[in-house]
Amino acid sequence: MKYFTIDELISSPTAKAEKIDNTPTDKIKKNLTLLVDNILDPLREAYSKPIKVNSGYRCPALNKAVGGVSNSEHLTGNAADISIGGPKENKVLFDLIQKLHLPFRQLLWEHGGAWVHVSYNPNDIKREVKNIG
Fold first, then answer.
1. Which of the residues 13, 26, 58, 92 has the least number of beta carbons within 10 Å of its own beta carbon?
2. Can you tell me the distance from the alpha carbon of 97 to that of 116, in angstroms, rounded to the nearest whole number?
3. Which residues contact 58 (CB under 8 A, 6 or more apart)?
4. pLDDT in tens, the chain (133 residues)
C-alpha cells in the first residue's frame, strides 16, 4: 500500500454522523490491501496525481445508511468508489483502468460519472464494465 491507507478506505462522513462503528475485521483489511495493491496503487501510479476514495469498506449498518445494495462488494472490502473531480475527469480514471488492463472484477460508471466504482477479487476477475444511472 503505497498511496492509500486503511483509514482512508474505511472513513465515512455518514458513519461519523450516525455514530456507526465501521471498523473492519482482519479479513476485510486483507481484502482492502489486495484492492489497493492490485487496482488503486497501480492506477494512482499511472495517473500521477491524487485519487480520492469516496467510499471503501462499509459495515452492514453503514451500507444500509447510504442506500447500498445488499450484496455490495463494499461489505467485504473488495470495492471502492473513487473520484478525481467531475464526470469529465472521472472518465479519465474509468478509461485508464481499462487501458491498463487492471484485474478488476467490476468497473461501474455511476450516476453520470459522479464517481467510478471498481472492485477486485482474486478469485473472480470477470472484468465486468457497466454504466449505472
1. 26
2. 10
3. 12, 22, 66, 68, 72, 74, 75
4. 999 999 999 999 999 999 999 999 999 999 999 999 999 999 999 999 999 999 999 999 999 999 999 999 999 999 999 999 999 999 999 999 999 999 999 999 999 999 999 999 999 888 999 998 7
Tell me the whole-structure pTM to 2 decimals: 0.95
The length of the chain is 133
Residue 78 lies in a domain: yes
- Report the alpha-carbon distance of residue 8 to residue 66 in Å, rounded: 17
What is the domain extent for residue 13?
Answer: 6-132
CATH assignment at residue 70: 3.30.1380.10
Please say whether the beta carbons of 1 and 41 come within 8 A.
yes
Our CA dihedral for 112, 40, 58, 67, rounded to 10 degrees, sits at 10
Q: What is the DSSP string of 55-68?
A: E----HHHHHHTT-
Provide CB contacts within 8 A for 15, sequence distance 6+: 21, 22, 59, 62, 65
In the chain, the number of structural domains is 1
- Name the residue among 48, 46, 51 with its Cα closest to residue 5: 51
